[in-house]
């Protein structure tokens, strides 16, 4: 039936996937529900639903994703698989948020295709080389920052794959949720309701003699403290942190009680990510990165001036060499000018990564 919730849900998902959307939002308003899809970071109004139709739709989504249909007063999370025309496989992560007399619903669309390699992620190959250089010592903490959907988890997966191809490492991941099933690594699903927190998972993982640990997110003081303690004992730890850049990451870690000595000697790098829509191939994106290594982190800790290859410089470089359109360049610059201000001149040679895709 064309007016059934399942028919609408399937058609909406297929259309979102065709447009390379990463998220779908159902946002209640005065008399109706607005449906938004996020494409390349931009939230676009897709359609509107009546309140009655949305009630039927959210009940359907709750049922098929394992949520409690009758619960409207508490936030819920669910998951379900989706097959696009019987070919590509996706994992859908759903979450509800209780509002006055109704709920909102958000759906994250996670492709389950083969994870891209590290060499395929970044627009400029020299940034891949710098990222690899950070891991030569095999110990310490490397943090990735950036907004939701900027490629943090994808980059961590690719970095782990890269490490495992070079060395016979024991790699363990702690994730909430597990976004993609990976070979040659042990993936642990964090389940706080069952008592398996990030901290509890870390303690258990250390008994499996890991060489490298990936923590989906450092959320609180206890996880941060244990992650740094793990790195101090000779392990490599890779994780994400909600911060704008390296300076913001250091501020957050200080707030979490991490000692200056650990920030100085254990934090080996902070990589802030941004995705750019590139001109070819069509509908693909490539990452650029603001990377602070241990030397630059030391300067930030001491409040010394230090120079970075900023997003503003990298975007100008990408535009100058035709990797992004003028329209996309102006849009990205407009979003970031208040943060970065006027950028210095960028290097005069370009080495584009023809394999970049995200």
TrEMBL record:
Transmembrane domains' residue ranges: none
Keyword ATP-binding in record: yes
A Pfam family hit: T2SSE
Record-level GO cellular component terms: plasma membrane
Molecular function in Gene Ontology: ATP binding; ATP hydrolysis activity
SUPFAM superfamilies with a match to the protein in the record: P-loop containing nucleoside triphosphate hydrolases
Xref: InterPro entries: AAA+_ATPase, ATPase_ComGA, P-loop_NTPase, T2SS/T4SS_dom
Limits of the Bacterial type II secretion system protein E domain: 206-220
Annotated keywords: ATP-binding, Nucleotide-binding
Family: Belongs to the GSP E family.
Name of protein: Competence protein ComGA
